[in-house]
Design a protein that fits this description.
- By secondary structure, the chain is of the alpha/beta class.
- The protein folds into two domains: 2-198 and 374-389, Rossmann fold (3-Layer(aba) Sandwich), CATH 3.40.50; 215-372, 3-Layer(aba) Sandwich (Rossmann fold).
- The protein has helices spanning 20-31, 59-72, 74-105, 115-130, 156-167, 177-183, 229-242, 257-266, 284-289, 305-312, 325-329, 341-353, 355-369, 374-389; strands spanning 2-9, 35-42, 46-48, 51-55, 110-114, 134-137, 146-147, 150-151, 171-174, 192-194, 215-220, 246-251, 273-276, 294-295, 317-320, 333-336.
- α3 (74-105) packs across α4.
- The chain is globular, with a radius of gyration of 22 Å.
- The model has no long low-confidence stretch (mean pLDDT 94).
């Protein structure tokens, strides 16, 4: 198949982890012999085997590309402008033109637009111009604004474009049953198919080598309010009170970085807490495997790829009973209520003080991770694409 994947962003040298799950899907499809074309806003143009990436150009060139589209479909362009403003419209319309240029050069069998409010919108507009079938893939933040850990309704403008983009897609892919429920606010249930996000189990697996001198707990996630780092930090003094020889490694960067580091200082835990911005992907299995367990007190995640990565490397998870987290973690960890440092501390101490429990949950984590193999996801994705191409019934996937 010739597949076009459209996204707001795609991993690059500048940002190698953004939308890494989309990259893994595109790469796996290309390795199976499909020709994969990626059109993305925030990335860099390049070729990797059977995968060719087209990046949105600079602002001036993007505006010129957007203008070409606006002249061809003025009604739809004005509709987009009215609902999301000038900047968002120019970004999406420029990708529409890049995709249309691609369609003139290549035979594309199916388009997969990632994020309901971005890639799926671009795919919808391309389909208006070229009558091509498309799939929409949702990830969570595109379906609702997350406030206080609850996924709510989108603002009116974004809601309208999401309803149109999903309503015109041949099918809508979501990564969890939890997100399926939320997505039903915008399109019929019979269009939605759950396909779990995936990790490469040949890459993410336990390693014998250890890199930490002391017992260490790892946490990976963007430093924003939604990931709940403040609750982990508030739990740490309670852990250290009963077990002083534990270190915590917090990996990530984001808008709350200064506030989170300030809180760690106020809690007087900096002797036991280390912050780093980023771990190269090739080193992630080593960091996971060297840790006692993984902790992230997220307020909402539709899936949470880090949970699957950690479990595939043989360590249990401590997290919160929200969104798609229970589906991902299963019996491979301990889940507590959100915003509850006391419960977090209790769960962490259980794992730190009970070797048998930790080993038991490690085994269950490895077993749970098998559900999220890249093979499982790509098999289902290929079946969806094929049925969309052939206009077959998607209900029994």
């Amino acid at each position: 198949m010739n597949i076009c994947i459209i996204s707001s962003a795609f991993p690059s040298r500048r940002n190698p982890i953004i939308n890494i799950f989309i990259y893994r899907q595109a790469k796996a499809l290309a390795e199976r012999g499909h020709k994969v074309f990626v059109v993305a806003g925030d990335t860099e143009s390049r070729r990797e085997g059977n995968m060719i990436v087209y990046a949105r150009p600079n602002v001036i060139k993007s505006a010129l590309l957007a203008l070409k589209v606006a002249l061809k479909i003025p009604k739809e362009s004005f509709w987009l402008l009215k609902n999301i403003g000038l900047k968002g419209t120019v970004g999406r319309l420029s990708l529409v033109q890049i995709t249309c240029n691609l369609l003139k050069r290549e035979r594309i069998d199916v388009i997969d637009g990632h994020y309901a409010d971005y890639g799926a919108v671009v795919a919808y507009l391309v389909s208006k111009m070229h009558k091509i079938k498309y799939v929409a893939t949702c990830h969570g933040s595109d379906i609702g604004e997350v406030a206080d850990g609850v996924i709510g309704t989108l603002p009116k403008g974004r809601k309208e474009i999401v309803i149109v983009a999903l309503g015109n897609a041949k099918c809508v892919i979501v990564p969890s049953q939890s997100l399926l429920t939320d997505t039903q606010k915008y399109c019929p249930r019979n269009k939605i198919i759950v396909v779990y996000n995936a990790v490469d189990l040949d890459f993410f697996k336990p390693t014998n080598r250890k890199i930490f001198k002391r017992r260490t707990v790892i946490s990976i996630g963007a430093l924003n309010k939604r990931k709940g780092h403040e609750y982990v930090l508030k739990a740490i003094p309670k852990v250290l009170k009963k077990n002083k020889d534990i270190d915590f490694l917090i990996v990530g960067k984001g808008p709350e970085e200064q506030n989170i580091k300030k809180l760690a200082k106020e809690l007087n835990i900096l002797d036991n807490v280390t912050f780093i911005d980023f771990i190269p992907e090739e080193q992630l299995p080593l960091y996971y495997s060297s840790s006692e367990f993984f902790v992230l007190a997220t307020l909402y995640d539709s899936f949470g790829i880090v949970f699957a990565e950690a479990m595939a490397c043989g360590i249990p998870v401590v997290s919160t009973n929200v969104g798609g987290v229970p589906e991902v973690v299963g019996e491979g960890g301990i889940l507590v209520e959100p915003r509850n440092p006391d419960q977090l501390a209790e769960a962490m101490l259980k794992l730190l003080n009970d070797e048998n429990l930790r080993q038991e949950l490690s085994k269950k984590a490895l077993e749970q991770a098998k559900k999220f193999s890249i093979e499982n996801r790509i098999n289902k994705i290929e079946e969806i694409y094929r049925k969309v191409m052939q206009n077959e019934n998607l209900l029994h996937i």
